[in-house]
Specification:
The protein is an alpha+beta fold and 730 residues long. 40% of the residues lie in helices and 14% in strands. The chain has a 6-stranded mixed beta sheet, sandwiched between helices. The protein has a 5-stranded mixed barrel with strand order 14-17-18-19-21. It has a 3-stranded antiparallel beta sheet with strand order 15-16-20. α17 runs parallel beside α19 and α21 (525-541) packs across α25. The termini are far apart.
Length: 730
């Protein structure tokens, strides 16, 4: 079979998706004689591309563990640095056709059944997947000496030490495989879908199509909307149990290349096989249609992993003959908090022989996060499992958040969900659960954030994690926008509505709002008041500030923002002329109407994004308002906040690169806190309760950040979680 590869021909689509029929079948068991154990020479060869990154991980792990011991010794006792990969694991491969050392191997990814098949005869092991899919896996190897790795077969499931070491090395195993074959065992291609797909594949492979973009991408109505059979097939994929399992998601993120296998309903000997490129293509086709919430979440993860823009970049590089430039340290682009949140939403079975299988599954999820982030750390599973509290889901997440703080992940200080209730009955922890706003607006293609310096931190080292000491920049006053500008903002909105403007939608693949329009919320007075308040601040600060803020804080996508910049600068190059706006001259020109419409679109995005934060941070969202802040420190900034809050930004987050994050801590000076006896000894000025977090909307330069740092106006505060009675109000 001629296998597709962009290195062969980036315009060649044959083999990306195809049906296979095998007229003979393997049995349901596998002979152990086909297993080979490989030594250090083979491991050095098979993991050669991963080993440089592995060495960096070990160095990173040593640094993180050192910091962790300083800020939270109890958490530090639960992890250790990984062993060196080559010496630290046993590697077996299915490699029975030749005694030669394998040059490559394929890894299998599948869902373990809740009760794994047990070995019934000496020298034979049960197949972990259906004989048809396993047979295809064997027959589609690249060479006769290519190995196959399957966890259930290649790990001695009785040997706890071997199992623990191999679990720690899962990142190396799946990242080093030539391809990861994904068996979607719980779904089948229906007869109707098979008929459609056979015709669709023939059309897709036709050379009549241009290399870029792929077929049917920009069609209206959307191609999937016009072809419900394809839509149903994609939804079926999203509903597969494989996408709901934490280990499977881990393996999917790590793999260099993927191949998906699904059995066909029409014939027990026929299956469908398709590539990761074809999966990315399906995700892109689905971007123009609405999906149910659960399937939309799966599509979001698929878009992160099989990012079509990344594949297009790869094809373009091949077309022009340039080399494929690897990302530094490989795959690690997610924030810790994002990965923790996504992993703990997924299922894990745990060891069926463990005393508490659910808690063992939580420890699995911790291992997945440590591996996926390239932390260089391994969980001391048996030490962690000794304490029943340590292995609870809430404690596992809190431990990982503390670890992410030591690793310098800035989102450890910007999580914006409900507080962890680790502390006493009276008070929650300062730590908050993940929320979809944590990484900021517009992060469809997530980029690695700059590392934060965690040495400034002092934590409550009890298991309850009630407080944190930080240096803050505090805004001494919050000011509402002038009344006359609010009135002018209302006029702009009214005239735009008369002109028939308004309306818009969310980008289906966006992480956070991607507003391409605006509308008045007729039944939501609070929204409209803040909408005009934000417009008033734009009029006060000017177009340069507004456009710079929008770019730094994540409005829309670059091509949308470029179009808005052009429209605004055409009519407001010297600022917002308030007299011209009041005289309504701008309503007489389609071009100037469009420029004002762009202003409203940015304001609508901003209030919409802030609205997604508000319910998390204060029991009465009606008290939220847009305020001018930090004006006394010499720069222009805006925040949406409840009334009577102390607005503070941690010194560690006061730098370029964090503009999109909800890095403003909203501290309640009127909340009671449990005073701590050692606060004054650590130089803490105030002890105060956190009520939530928000985004600092500003257009700050490196000089702006440096100037405030040089002024040395930091305030050290000890921040507690909110009282439990205030949580109940939420």
């Amino acid at each position: 079979m001629e296998k597709w590869s962009p290195a062969i021909d980036p315009t060649y689509r044959k083999g990306q998706c195809e049906f296979f029929t095998w007229n003979w079948s393997l049995g349901t068991e596998f002979s152990e004689d086909l297993l080979s154990e490989h030594g250090n020479e083979a491991k050095e060869h098979l993991f050669r591309e991963f080993l440089p990154a592995h060495q960096k991980e070990l160095e990173r792990g040593h640094r993180t563990l050192q910091r962790l011991r300083e800020i939270h010794p109890i958490v530090a006792s639960l992890v250790g640095t990984k062993p060196y990969l080559v010496d630290g694991m046993t590697l077996r491969l299915i490699n029975g056709e030749t005694s030669a050392m394998p040059k490559t191997y394929t890894a299998l990814s599948y869902c373990w059944p809740m009760e794994p098949r047990r070995q019934t005869s000496t020298g034979r092991r049960p197949l972990p997947i259906s004989p048809l899919l396993f047979q295809h896996l064997v027959l589609q190897r690249e060479t006769a000496d290519e190995g196959i790795w399957c966890d259930q077969i290649c790990i001695d499931q009785v040997n706890k030490d071997e199992k623990s070491r191999t679990i720690t090395a899962m990142d190396a195993i799946y990242r080093s495989a030539r391809v990861v074959v994904v068996a979607l065992e719980d779904i089948q291609v229906s007869t109707e879908e098979e008929i459609f797909l056979r015709a669709f594949i023939e059309d897709y492979e036709d050379r009549k199509w241009q290399p870029l973009p792929p077929p049917h991408i920009h069609e209206r109505p959307p191609f999937m909307e016009r072809n419900p059979v394809l839509m149903g097939f994609f939804l079926k994929i999203c509903r597969s149990r494989w996408f709901q399992r934490a280990w499977c998601a881990h393996e999917m993120r790590l793999a260099k290349r993927h191949r998906f296998l699904i059995r066909c309903e029409s014939d027990s000997h026929t299956l469908l096989s398709f590539s990761d490129f074809f999966m990315a293509y399906l995700v892109l086709l689905s971007a123009s249609v609405s999906l149910p919430d659960e399937e939309k979440q799966v599509r979001h993860i698929l878009n992160q992993v099989f990012n079509f823009s990344g594949y297009m970049d790869e094809l373009r590089r091949v077309l022009v003959g340039s080399s494929n430039k690897e990302k530094e340290d490989g795959h690690y682009t997610l924030a810790w908090t994002t990965l923790i949140s996504e992993t703990f939403k997924l299922g894990a079975g745990g060891d069926p022989d463990a005393p508490d299988r659910e808690k063992d599954a939580n420890l699995d999820k911790m291992t997945i996060v440590l591996n996926s982030m390239g932390s260089g750390l391994a969980l001391k599973r048996y030490a962690a499992a000794q304490s029943s509290r340590t292995a609870s889901e809430e404690l596992c997440q809190a431990v990982l958040f503390t670890l992410s703080l030591a690793a310098g992940d800035p989102t450890s200080l910007t999580t914006n969900g409900d507080p962890f209730k680790l502390a006493t009955k009276e008070c929650a922890s300062w730590l908050r659960r993940p929320h979809h706003t944590d990484i900021g607006s517009g992060a469809m293609r997530q980029e690695k954030l700059p590392e934060m310096d965690p040495f400034f931190v002092k934590l409550d080292t009890s298991p309850y994690m009630k407080w944190i000491d930080l240096d803050f920049f505090v805004s001494s006053s919050l000011q509402e926008p002038p009344a006359e500008l609010r009135s002018l903002a209302g006029l702009l909105v009214s005239e735009c509505r008369k002109a028939g403007l308004g309306g818009g939608f969310l980008g289906q693949l966006a992480q956070g709002p991607l507003y391409l329009g605006w509308r008045m919320e007729a039944d939501f007075e609070f929204w409209n008041i803040n909408f005009t308040g934000i417009i008033a601040i734009f009029l006060l600060f000017g177009p340069k500030w507004m456009l710079g803020m929008a770019e730094k804080c994540g409005f829309a996508s670059p091509h949308v923002l470029d179009e808005i910049k052009s429209a605004v600068r055409t009519h407001f190059s010297d600022g917002f002329d308030q007299n011209w706006l009041r005289d309504q001259e701008w309503t007489k020109s389609e071009s100037s109407l469009h420029a004002v419409d762009c202003l409203l679109r940015i304001a609508y995005w901003l209030v919409g994004w802030s609205m997604s934060i508000m319910p998390q941070t204060h029991p009465d969202r009606w008290t939220w308002k847009p305020y001018i802040c930090f004006s006394d420190q010499g720069f222009k900034a805006m925040i949406l906040s409840p009334e009577n809050m102390t607005v503070a930004v941690p010194l560690a987050l006061w730098r370029m690169g964090y503009d999109r994050l909800p890095r403003v801590w909203l501290l309640d000076p009127n909340s009671e806190v449990e005073m701590t006896s050692n606060a004054s000894d650590s130089g803490v000025g105030d002890e105060i309760a956190m009520r939530g977090k928000s985004v600092l909307f500003a257009n700050l330069s490196n000089d702006d950040y440096s100037n405030l740092r040089r002024q040395g106006l930091c305030t050290r505060m000890r921040v507690h979680g909110p009282k439990q009675n205030s949580l109940e109000e939420n």
